[in-house]
Design brief:
Blueprint lengths: L11 H5 L3 H15 L6 H7 L6 E4 L5 E7 L5 H4 L3 E4 L2 E4 L11 E8 L5 E3 L12 E2 L5 E7 L4 E7 L5 E3 L21 E3 L5 E6 L39 H11 L1 E7 L6 E15 L5 E7 L14 E7 L4 E8 L15 E5 L6 E7 L13 E7 L7 E6 L2 E7 L6 E7 L4 E7 L20 E7 L9 E2 L1 E3 L5 E3 L5 E6 L10 E6 L5 E6 L5 E7 L6 E7 L6 E6 L3 E2 L2 E2 L6 E4 L14 E8 L5 E8 L9 E6 L3 E3 L2 H4 L26 E4 L4 E3 L9 H18 L3 E11 L1 H12 L5 E5 L23 H6 L13 E6 L9 H13 L4 E6 L9 H20 L6 H5 L6
Parallel strand pairs: 40-42, 40-44, 41-43, 44-45, 45-46, 46-47
Antiparallel strand pairs: 1-2, 2-5, 3-4, 5-6, 7-8, 8-9, 9-10, 11-12, 12-13, 13-14, 14-15, 15-16, 16-17, 18-19, 19-20, 20-21, 22-23, 23-24, 24-25, 26-29, 27-28, 29-30, 30-31, 32-33, 33-34, 34-37, 35-36, 38-39, 39-42
Helix pairs in contact: 7-8
């Protein structure tokens, strides 16, 4: 959400003045940094290539904002001090997210004539992801200095930008993600002001650790099962709780966006998970966290009061007092109101969901959830709007208010459904809401959540002047955007659906052998689109597609034939265009369809058998018919980012990327055959690439990240397919994630044999080929504590195996610092060069047969 304007640098003079203890600390850090390795120059050139700017469009649709990600901060920035509190990572200097994404080179480009100008910002300026005012004329973003987070506003028509003086934002909850609700500021209806979370006046210094412990840490439970995931960065003691109070507490304030800089406080300071203005601009939905806190779950599960305030901070309506959520059933939901939000096109109407099954997915009930709503002036009782037979998965309202989409999800069958209904009685429509039967709806979609080929897409949302978004409606039409997955790869599309007749017409779809996705609809009728187009040889660029023949306000299918090149970004890495890639489909021994993208290195010559890298990530499926469906597209522009496995192409390897590793079966027991299925899938990929004449099956390495690392270790322990492996940031001992992992629903105590069987830690003595373990020392992912790699290293080492263990200072589950990424690439290339590329020959039979399970 935020980024610093400049890197913090400690000068030599300052170092001389440091205390001896600090000198030792810095010396230790410097020594570590001196050991960072760099990969070959050709790898560095590809790594450092410019990235395609992102594009954003406001409601006015007259200006496109282009802004460029800054992909690799220096380790000096990543290493800045931060607190790990209640699942948050808070930069102690700025009170915002630690190591947040940042952007620069903000450019406004007119749709009408393509004229572009940079937003007027200081040199070296880094911004958060921008967000538009409701009317689409002003862009807001945050900027982190060395000591605070500033709010900046830019006029999209003139390009002038300025900070709002005297405002210091509290963006502590921005560390939970970068969705709209987690921003520190929200536009008020009309765009004249913003509601922001700010640092309370006179807050003072952060609490210091107690010199003497106040007492023991006590937790207790009496007879009620409370299974929880293995969360990272939790509170550990009362001192942590005090720090959480300090950093998370903010003052809500209305900030004038018209240039006066006027700030008006709203209510008393508190810890706000949510502070969302109502469409009427007179009310605010707040969710305030309060004690007692928990040492087992993150902040979003702490007790909280959900209330409606007026703009003075007076409580108009109390929605709920929600308790600590430590006892939510595995795969279930909490009791009481949840998913509480404003109806987007009513002045002040709340909509929420409540479980009818106590939140327990194993209870057999006729209906699982009910949807409630409550209208201003918030007197009387909430009214039931509708019910969901399966678990509620979302509700979307049309911009006119006479149309809604209810979605539910069946955990047992993994099927998702969508229902159309009218929340306002209009008896002449087939999907009409009936006052005497509020549950009457029309089923529109019912398909497997894993079925990519038949996914109908997502309804297009339109920003309203009140600051909220609703499903775009044109007469009796809505619009759907989808990925367009197919056996040949993804071809994104835009469809128009008549909600009365259910007639579906395709307005746009990417041409064969290209990848073109819709960035924004520049007209409400779909007659003008902003798209991002690329091919294997053409760099991504933005296009404007116009309809040259349309009926009224609606584009005719296939009529978006007038194409204007909106941007002209050149190929940043022409040396990569010699890389060949193709989508390859094949079958596993049990008949399950599989696919992978085969990349051939730029110097590849027909008939050569090269060393190969298999890189994969297992996924669970209930149905073999959808397990083999193709994901992604072979027609995208080839670029390398981060510590990508595709960099092996520049070292002469064939890369079998995204090799399917489906684990098919009943969701309750699917992992019983996890080992057998991933081993069979890996063998099928190697056999297919060898059959095509691309690879030497005697020289194949395997790698993966996170759950892919778990897969890698298991393949090395249970097969003879590979000469070496690379496992990054994985979990290897499933007894340390005893209440489930990935999609596993059983606990360790319910399926102990399976937990042991799938834990490569238990079979470390069977790993006879070299394995490279890499892990971020500040891993923030549930279940993949750094201890997992540490213990795996000790297990392999203790059993006489060949293993190298690299830990990355200050890095989380994904690696971000330039020095870290360069080091990881160097480690990976050197490891496979030594143990795969240079491997001595062995019999093909031995290389392609799996070990027999005991």
């Amino acid at each position: 959400m935020i980024a610093r304007m400049s890197h913090r640098v400690v000068s030599g003079a300052a170092l001389l003045g440091l205390a001896a203890s600090a000198m030792l600390l810095l010396a230790g850090r410097a020594r570590t940094q001196d050991l960072y390795q760099k990969p070959p120059n050709e790898v560095l050139r590809a790594l450092n290539a410019p990235v395609t700017p992102r594009a954003s469009v406001g409601r006015a649709r007259d200006v496109v904002l282009l802004y460029s990600p800054v992909p690799y901060p220096p380790i000096a920035d990543v290493a800045q001090p931060f607190e790990r509190l209640a699942g948050l990572r808070i930069d102690v200097a700025t009170n915002g997210p630690h190591n947040a994404p940042r952007f620069n080179n903000l450019v406004r480009k007119r749709v009408a004539d393509g004229h572009e100008e940079e937003i007027d910002l200081p040199a070296g300026f880094y911004a958060s992801q921008p967000f538009w005012s409701p009317e689409g004329h002003t862009v807001a973003f945050t900027h982190a200095t060395d000591s605070s987070i500033e709010l900046w506003l830019a006029d999209a028509r003139t390009g002038k930008a300025a900070t709002v003086q005297g405002v210091k934002l509290n963006a502590a909850f921005g560390t939970m993600g970068f969705s709209e609700e987690n921003r520190p500021c929200h536009w008020m209806p009309g765009g004249k002001s913003l509601l922001c979370q700010t640092i309370p006046a006179g807050r003072g210094a952060a609490p210091k650790p107690p010199a003497v412990p106040a007492g023991p840490r006590v937790q207790e439970s009496f007879g009620k099962a409370a299974p929880v995931a293995t969360f990272e960065d939790l509170l550990e003691n009362e001192y942590d709780a005090t720090k959480f109070d300090y950093y998370a507490t903010s003052q809500l304030a209305l900030i004038d966006a018209g240039g006066s800089g006027k700030v008006a406080n709203v209510g008393a300071p508190g810890i706000f998970l949510v502070a969302d203005p109502a469409p009427d601009g007179k009310h605010v939905l707040v969710s305030r966290v309060h004690r007692p806190y928990s040492y087992l779950v993150p902040a979003e599960r702490f007790p909280r009061d959900v209330e409606v305030w007026d703009l003075t901070g007076h409580v108009v309506y109390k929605v709920a007092s929600l308790p600590l959520q430590e006892n939510v059933p595995i795969g279930g939901v909490p009791t009481g109101p949840r998913d509480i939000e404003w109806h987007p096109n009513k002045p002040a109407t709340l909509v929420w969901v409540e479980a009818l099954d106590d939140g327990d997915p194993k209870k057999q009930v006729k209906e699982r959830d009910k949807v409630m709503w409550m209208h201003e002036p918030f007197t009387g009782e909430p009214v039931e709007l509708t019910r969901a037979e399966k678990r509620f998965a979302g509700i979307s309202f049309g911009e006119r208010g006479d149309f809604a989409i209810l979605r539910d999800f069946d955990r047992d069958t993994l099927r998702a459904r969508a229902w159309f209904f009218n929340p306002q009685p209009t008896p002449d429509k087939p999907w009409t809401f009936h006052a005497d039967n509020p549950h009457e709806k029309t089923l529109v979609w019912d398909l497997s959540t894993q079925d990519r080929y038949h996914n109908p897409g997502t309804p297009v949302l339109w920003p309203l002047l009140n600051g909220h978004s609703a499903v775009l409606q044109q007469s009796n039409y809505i619009f759907l955007i989808g990925a367009g997955a197919s056996p040949d790869g993804e071809r994104p599309f835009l469809d128009r659906l008549d909600i009365n007749t259910m007639e579906l017409k395709r307005i746009f779809q990417a041409e064969p052998k290209t990848y073109e996705e819709i960035v924004a609809m520049l007209s409400t009728g779909g007659t003008k689109l902003l798209t991002r187009r690329e091919t294997p040889r053409d760099a991504p660029n933005y296009l404007v597609r116009d309809s040259v023949a349309f009926n009224g306000n609606f584009a005719d299918p296939g009529s978006l034939t007038q194409v204007t090149e909106f941007t002209h970004f050149a190929d940043p890495t022409p040396e990569l265009r010699a890389i060949q890639k193709q989508l390859v489909t094949y079958k596993r021994a049990d008949g399950v369809d599989l696919s992978m993208t085969v990349y051939l290195p730029p110097d590849y010559r027909q008939g050569e058998r090269r060393p190969a890298v298999v890189w994969a990530y297992p996924l669970e499926f209930t149905d073999a018919s959808v397990a083999g469906q193709v994901s992604g597209s072979p027609y995208r522009f080839t670029t390398f980012v981060g510590p990508s496995q595709l960099f092996f192409l520049l070292d002469g390897y064939v890369v079998l990327d995204g090799a399917s590793m489906p684990v098919v079966g009943n969701p309750e027991t699917v992992n019983n055959t996890y080992i057998e299925q991933i081993t069979s899938s890996a063998k099928a990929a190697i056999d297919k690439a060898a059959e095509m004449g691309f690879i030497d099956p005697n020289r194949v390495g395997v790698g993966g990240h996170s759950y892919g690392a778990f897969m890698t270790a298991n393949l090395l322990a249970h097969s003879d397919l590979f000469r070496a492996g690379i496992a990054r940031s994985g979990a290897y001992n499933r007894t340390l994630t005893p209440f489930g992992f990935q999609s596993e629903r059983r606990t360790l105590w319910q399926a102990p044999e399976m937990y042991i069987k799938v834990s490569p830690f238990m079979f470390a003595d069977k790993i006879k080929v070299p394995v490279l373990l890499i892990h971020g020392e500040a891993d923030n992912n549930s279940g993949t504590f750094p201890m997992q790699s540490d213990r795996m290293y000790r297990a392999i080492k203790g059993n006489g195996g060949s293993v190298r263990y690299v830990t990355l200072p200050d890095e989380a589950h994904g690696y971000s610092a330039r020095e870290s990424i360069e080091d990881v690439l160097s480690e990976m290339l050197q490891w496979f060069d030594k143990f795969v590329k240079s491997a001595t020959p062995r019999e093909v039979k031995a290389a392609t047969e799996s070990k027999t399970q005991d």
